[in-house]
Input
Amino acid sequence: MSKVETMRGPVDSANLGNVLVHEHVILMDLEYVENYRLDFDEATVVDRAAQELNALKAAGIDTIIDLTVLGLGRHIKRLAKVAEKTDLNIIVATGVYTFKDVPKPFEYVGPGLMIDRPDPMAELFIQDITVGIAGTGIKAGELKCAIDEPGLTHGVERVMRNIAAAYRATGTPISVHTAAHHQMGLVAQQVFAEEGVDLRDVIIGHCGDTDDLDYLMKLADQGSMLGMDRFGINVILSLEKRVGTIIELIKRGYIDRITLSHDCSSWMDMFPSGKTPMPEHSYLHISQQVIPALREAGLSQGQIDQMFVHNPRRHFEDAASRHAAR
Ligand SMILES: [Zn+2]
Output
């Protein structure tokens, strides 16, 4: 057992319950919303988010990992207002979400740059994990970065190597957004391996966007967990194919490498209403449609628990115990 940081403070890993490993609550470009979304009313959005998370808790999910880091509109004080109104555990992440460049405030500061000093990025990630985020004392429990179609750009690589540095310093596990159709999970694994990351401590995000079993088995054979984490985004891959891929992976012996989630949010600035136009892309989709479909495909309650309870628990416990042993 180990302690996992949540918005309510540390929780025993044994008490995380059913976990959705890749979600968001409020997703936005903070500057855009400040200037152009005068319809954004914090109190309304906070109340609705809390209601939705309470409904998720009532549906049997106990914990979400909110992977909203820099680049996605992280606002920990606003999120804390949501957390106050729900019994669901929220684990927050630190890191940077970019497909190309580092955020401007990092551009000139770091090794070999105009202000030549150790990279401030790793320092800030470690501070978020050990001291707390933005003066709140709320600590990050997960590290997050991204690699998408543009591949390993200079900025993406710098973020990834700093994520690895924070992992080495703290033993916090890693979740990485990847572009499955460009097989970017393999590139992320290569960089992490170079940086001394145990690939078993990494969730390769958005694996569920593909049914390419060879690619998924390559990632899993190197030890990483697969994020089958975009349930409800049926425009990329249908529910039937997403479920079918999981069933096939289980047949081939990979049940201990599978995690499930939606990658959805309660409010996002990408749509005029603040809500996704995809009706099934909601927090309740897994509880109401996906789990029944997994049962129908023949999975036992024990197998379902393995993916929602035991695998996420191991993600935190194993990273912590490996870190303690290093
Ligand atoms: Zn996401």
